[in-house]
Amino acid sequence: MTDKTQQATFADLGLIPTLVERLEELEYSQPTPIQSHTIPDVLNGRDIVGGANTGSGKTAAFALPILQKVVQQAASNSRRGNFVSHLILVPTRELASQVAYSVKSYSYHLKDKVKTVAVFGGVSVNPQMLALRGGSDIIVATPGRLLDLVSSNAIKLNQVKTLVLDEADRMLSLGFTDELNKILELLPEKKQTLLFSATFPEKVTTLAQHLLNDPVEVQLQSAEASTLVQRVFSVNKGEKTAVLAHLIKQHQWRQTLIFVNAKNACNHLAQKLSKRGITAEVFHGDKGQGARTRVLDGFKSGEIQVLIATDIAARGLDIEKLPVVINFDLPRSPADYMHRIGRSGRAGEVGLGLSLIDYDDYHHFKVIEKKNKFKLDREQVEGFEVEDDQNEAYFMPMKPRAKPAGTGKKKKKRN
Ligand code: AMP
């Protein structure tokens, strides 16, 4: 861990005035911790392995020094053929367009000097092929589409100087290992590698070891977690929708992101909320790109207040200062729990990560707590108190799915 203080300004970190000026326009008053801990080392050519969530400001942490390199090395970089100098790999198309958007925004005053292209699947390949002609300085890509473009000779990776793996843990959990390995084989041996990951499962650690050369390690999770309040509410089986509707109406959050575990569960929950007078939109993998963009824009602008999403669709969503994220269904993996709640309380804002758990979830939530090393008090919602035979405090099952006698039979469903 380096000892740079958080009080440093962007200029202190070694950024050129054009970039500093742009950050002032964007009202970035001071660097976030991940930015102050990594920008000077990235500028110095060091490899980085950074523990940082979406929302910590990590896009700027790698994008700003890369932009500076593009400008300072303009003579040797001169774009040509289908080569690319700096490659940023991300797990989803949403994140690809979001990161490319940020890079373009940071380079607003360098428009003539920097060419950034986003390549991702789910949309026509032709405009991307056209955009790649004549070479690019920076490419933000999802692995599958990048490999398609390599095999059709639309892009060459053997001149890459910087490789960024953004959200490396998600990339690997989404099963990109083979694609990632194919890409790594196409890259030159000598390059600077920046790896960012919210969590460090074994696969990421292994990747880090064979990919990085004497990296600077920056681990900031605990500081970031302090901007996030986590709460867990115990509810009776069959009452989650009623409790959810009650909380939404009670708190009137500006935006609420609700996670469920399946696409049809999104639609089902939206219908049930609608019967309770709450309009919600859904966001999942079956939606076309146009519909996804429209829903996301509506949610960002505040037009849509309640969004129900699955993990796959919501990875990497950048929605500024999301006040609350609710786990209606618990995520299967403890790492996904951290990713989900990391959507709130972004860049220093206090956010709320809230989970609704019923009898069937108690065991799994304990596992999530244990793996992520936290422990929360079980709360109850007034008017929806948990019955004794479903209360974790009175009855903790030995097996996760075993039901206590009578559960769910006598009880009238409220949703
Ligand atoms: P990221 O982690 O890169 O997805 O960034 C999360 C959000 O924080 C984005 O909306 C950025 O525009 C914003 N952001 C990044 N760095 C700063 C900063 N130094 N000051 C204020 N906002 C920032």
From TrEMBL:
Domain named Helicase C-terminal: residues: 242-392
Q: What CDD domains is this protein classified in?
A: DEADc, SF2_C_DEAD
Q: MF terms per GO, please?
A: hydrolase activity; RNA helicase activity
Q: Which SMART domains match?
A: DEXDc, HELICc
Q: Where is the Helicase ATP-binding domain?
A: 39-218
Give the enzyme's EC designation.
3.6.4.13
Q: Which domain of life is it from?
A: Bacteria
- What Pfam families does UniProt report for this protein, alphabetically? DEAD (PF00270), Helicase_C (PF00271)
Output the InterPro entries linked to this UniProt entry: DEAD/DEAH_box_helicase_dom, DEAD/DEAH_RhlB, DEAD_box_RNA_helicase, Helicase_ATP-bd, Helicase_C-like, P-loop_NTPase, RNA-helicase_DEAD-box_CS, RNA_helicase_DEAD_Q_motif
Q: Per the record, which residues fall in region Disordered?
A: 395-415
- Ranges of residues in domain DEAD-box RNA helicase Q: 8-36
User: Which UniProt key words apply to this protein?
Assistant: ATP-binding, Helicase, Hydrolase, Nucleotide-binding
Query: Which PANTHER family does the UniProt record give?
Result: ATP-DEPENDENT RNA HELICASE RHLE (PTHR47959:SF13), ATP-DEPENDENT RNA HELICASE RHLE-RELATED (PTHR47959)
Q: Which family does it belong to?
A: Belongs to the DEAD box helicase family.
Protein name per Swiss-Prot or TrEMBL: ATP-dependent RNA helicase RhlE
Q: Which organism is it from?
A: Vibrio marisflavi CECT 7928
Organism lineage reads as: Bacteria, Pseudomonadati, Pseudomonadota, Gammaproteobacteria, Vibrionales
The gene behind this protein is: rhlE_4
